[in-house]
Amino acid sequence: MDWSPFGPDEIRWDLACGPGPDGRWRGWFGVQVRADALRRLGLHPDQPSSGAVGPSPPGWWHAAAEREARRTGP
Hints:
Elements: E1 11-19, E2 25-33, H1 35-40, H2 59-72
């Protein structure tokens, strides 16, 4: 199933894992997309990155969202 708007040579993603300051393991994703692929979607490669502007929702919210995702499926 090919749902991505990008070809295999247009996108790269990486995952790094390691313990955080509290000792719990965390994962970080890095995503890179070729500029020409962004232009094709109407995006400009020099646009600033997006980022979180507020605190993360509480833990119960994440757990409820995961239960709902498993219940409804893909």
